[in-house]
Amino acid sequence: MKTKLAAAIACGASLAALSSAAAAQDSEASSAIGNEIVVTATKREESLQKVPFSINAQTAKDIQRSGAATLEDLSRNVAGLNIQNLGPGQSQVSVRGVSAGQVVRDQPGVKEQVGVYLDESAISLSLFTPDLDLFDLNRVETLRGPQGTLFGSGSMGGTIRYITNQPRLGRTEGTVEGGLSQIDGGGMGGELKGALNLSVGEGAALRAVGYWTHYAGFIDAIGPAAGKNINDVLNMTVSEAIEFFAANKQHVIVQRLQPLESVGLGYIKLGQNSSTLSGGENQRVKLAYFIGQEKAEHTMFIFDEPTTGLHFHDIKRLLHAFDALIERGHTIIVIEHNMDVIKCADHVIDLGPDGGDKGGNLVAEGTPEDIAACEKSITGKYLKEKL
Questions:
Q1: Beta bridge partners of 365
Q2: What is the distance between the alpha carbons of residues 4 and 160, in angstroms, rounded to a whole number?
């Protein structure tokens, strides 16, 4: 099961302080008369039939009629538009076979060929296209290439534009949409969406849109997880998981997780995205990996302030992890200001005497006791209190 909470900021809260917003809204409202659709894919308003490009515009009625909730759903009604779902936030958009990025992950230098826009703001990066809900959109425009497009070289293959509903002056109104789902053999799911248009004066209005989705689980772990489903396990912290799997006699899993706790990462969740970790946390994840290796070549590790954000109890755990690596024949170099770490070093190189232009010079080197005895060393002054 997965829960997603999102507030559509760009297509959520907008502030209109000019009367042109009202004129634009009136234009959009009148555009539906006589089956005429006004699009802005060429940076100016004109009838869909008069645009000299291959363009498709799915209006709010079209979206509602098809029951589409995502761009992937909508692509079934747009010729030449294909969406490859690579997971949340990683949909790959292609127009007429030209892709918005490579399928191979983590490759630098991916050249954009299909641009995805929220109104006038680009929201797609290499292999990263946010999954926006289509609720309360005015329309979705698909401008098909190849062409010399007005949206830059990153949109040569085509452009996808989410066009939001603009705030309406002089009106206070809203809409709510909800639903429930049940998976056979799985759990219950549901969604709740809402939009509010609020008039805040004669010349200003605010429009906010938000949605919440809970996906019903369909994988129920039996046996090792003691009835827990995969989402329950991924929401456990490392420490909670060690305790849980130890109670269920899953010693291999506990053995794999133990190094993470030994480097002070017992608080992170098993399903936590690595992009949310700090630099120090990422270093300690790599450290835990090497600690967990039973056989590894002798390696020199360089850590840049790995104690950042750590409680002093966790610093002790980190030092024990360093000792475990040293006992296996590895070498550790640490760039650090924490005196509890410096005092445990075999050899210290003190650079200074200050920072910036006044630093970078060798002040002292040797054992922690040698640094503490150096009168020129500012580090030694504070290190002496720890020895």
A1: 349
A2: 23
Q: How far apart are CA 103 and CA 107, in angstroms?
A: 9
Strand order across the 91-95 sheet: 81-85, 91-95, 98-99
CATH superfamily of this structure's domain 20-164: TonB-dependent receptor, plug domain (2.170.130.10)
Give, in order, the Cα–Cα distances in Å from 288 to each of 281, 295, 318: 10, 14, 10
Ordered per-residue pLDDT tens for the chain, 387 residues: 334 333 333 333 333 333 333 333 444 433 444 456 666 666 667 676 666 667 888 998 998 888 888 888 888 888 888 887 766 656 777 787 665 554 444 444 445 677 888 888 888 765 567 778 888 999 998 887 766 556 665 677 788 889 999 999 989 999 999 999 887 766 788 889 999 999 998 889 999 999 888 877 665 545 445 567 777 888 899 999 999 989 888 888 999 999 898 888 889 999 887 767 777 788 788 888 888 876 667 888 888 888 877 777 778 888 888 888 888 888 999 999 899 999 999 999 999 888 788 888 899 999 999 999 998 899 999 998 888
CA angle 180, 185, 187 (to 5 degrees): 35
The helix (H) or strand (E) run that includes residue 207 is: strand 205-215
Q: How far is C-alpha 207 from the chain's CA centre?
A: 25
- Angle, CA of 269, 271 and 276, to the nearest 5°: 75
Give residue limits of the domains in the chain: 20-164
Total Cβ atoms within 10 A of residue 136: 25
Residue 372: partners with Cβ closer than 8 Å, 6 or more residues away: 380, 383, 384, 387
